[in-house]
User: Which sequence fits this backbone?
């Protein structure tokens, strides 16, 4: 059996040659199952079929496919909704005691995509983040870590924000003003996927993604082409190489873009 686990912020990716040995022993919410293709939402409490949250998560898939020009994923995604933080944390401590506390995570095996989350004030944001990973992983193989997290941070904010993550923008502006921070895409591309990203890494990943999608239209086209190549060939040269062919100094361009962005949290 090959088993590799990566914890990335709120996300856990498991790659396994066969089913994990503990899979049959998990105690998961299973009293109700709401099927809304491709989502199968399992819970121990009743969730109405057109709960605003469910409709929002379905719309997220459409938003992703339109924005990135990728097909809608048809692969089932299992969402396990724990009714409260205590039950969720109990599950985590029992089966993943080595992992830090978190509110949600995404698990990928060779045969199944799953999202685990606790019900609470931030369940919508958590599910939008983790389901962005799930929808993307169903379609695009070998997505680089920075872009995977950047897209998840972009889409975790409510739809009306159009990807503007105020917390990340404020942090990046603070870094620029106080520490003369400069973005560095090469550094992000080299991050070890087995190590947890820092909050500043998340903020920078979001910054690049927002810049690429909502800055110059040529950058968005370049990004879509990159995703298309990954989807078709499962591999592609680092995105920074393509970006530099269009914008020789992308770090400078992002820094300027961020300075001009207004944040109204
Ligand atoms: Zn994530």
Assistant:
């Amino acid at each position: 059996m090959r088993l590799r686990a990566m914890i990335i912020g709120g996300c856990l990716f498991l790659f396994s040659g066969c089913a994990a040995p503990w899979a049959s022993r998990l105690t998961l919410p299973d009293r109700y199952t709401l099927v809304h293709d491709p989502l199968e939402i399992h819970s121990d409490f009743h969730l109405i079929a057109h709960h605003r949250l469910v409709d929002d998560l379905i719309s997220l898939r459409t938003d992703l496919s339109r924005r990135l020009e990728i097909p809608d994923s048809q692969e089932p995604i299992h969402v396990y909704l724990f009714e409260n933080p205590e039950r969720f944390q109990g599950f985590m401590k029992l089966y993943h005691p080595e992992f830090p506390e978190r509110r949600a995570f995404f698990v990928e095996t060779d045969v199944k995509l799953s999202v685990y989350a606790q019900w609470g004030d931030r369940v919508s944001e958590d599910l939008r983040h983790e389901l962005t990973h799930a929808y993307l992983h169903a379609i695009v193989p070998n997505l680089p870590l920075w872009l995977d997290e950047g897209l998840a941070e972009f889409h975790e904010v409510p739809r009306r924000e159009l990807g503007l993550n105020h917390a990340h923008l404020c942090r990046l502006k603070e870094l620029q003003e106080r520490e003369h921070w400069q973005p560095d895409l090469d550094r992000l591309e080299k991050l070890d996927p087995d190590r947890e990203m820092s909050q500043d890494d998340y903020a920078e990943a979001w910054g690049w993604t927002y810049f690429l999608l909502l800055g110059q239209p040529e950058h968005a086209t370049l990004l879509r082409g990159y995703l298309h190549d990954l989807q078709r060939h499962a591999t592609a040269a680092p995105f920074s190489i393509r970006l530099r062919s269009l914008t020789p100094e992308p770090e400078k361009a992002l820094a300027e873009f961020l300075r001009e962005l207004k944040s109204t949290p």
Summary: Residues 52-68 form the longest helix (17 residues). The chain has two domains: 3-139, 148-260. Residues 8-11, 129, 133, 149, 152 surround zinc ion (CB under 6 Å). The two ends are 47 Å apart (CA to CA).
